[in-house]
Amino acid sequence: MLDDPSTDAALSLRALQDVATANRWFGGTLAVLAELRPLLREAKARGESLTLLDLGSGAGDVLVAARRLATRMGVQLHTIGLERTFPLAHAGRGACGLSLAADALTLPFANGAVDVVMCSQVLHHFEEDEARQLLREMHRVSRRAVLIADLRRAWGALAGVWLGSFLLGFHPVSRHDGVVSVRRGFRAAELASLVDRAVAVQPVVHDRLGFRVTTCWRTGP
Question: Domains of the chain (ranges plus CATH)?
Answer without folding.
Answer: 27-152+187-218 (3.40.50.150)
